[in-house]
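subagent[fold] <- orchestrator: predict structure for attached chain, return tokens only, no commentary.
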Amino acid sequence: MADVNRGNRPLSPHLTIYRPQLTSVTSILTRITGNALIVGALLIVWWLLAASSSPEYFAVADAVITSFLGDLVMFLSLWALWYHTLAGIRHLIWDNAIGLELETAEKLGWAVVGGSVVLTVLTTIIIM
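subagent[fold] -> orchestrator:
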């Protein structure tokens, strides 16, 4: 049976005293963007299904997708797609044991953040 009296040992660091590093924040953001991409994908699938069903239903779906909120969701989904892609490439680099030094890992983190913003803006300019 486990010893219930564990003595006077310190507790593990908690979020209230832990200072997040760029690598941990970008890792968490990779998971969030991966899940958030589902929303954009579902909207696109809904739009395509509406296009294949009837002109009236497509008009409704198209009005939602092209509204301000729909444009915002699509823009953020585009950023999430670029961010998630670049973070995946960074993890592939790390899987080959390259760039694991703290300074290099931080530079790669900033490259993912900055690169995702730049690629999102460029893609938006090209699409429009």
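orchestrator: received. Logging for downstream: Residues 22-53 form the longest helix (32 residues). The mean pLDDT is 91.
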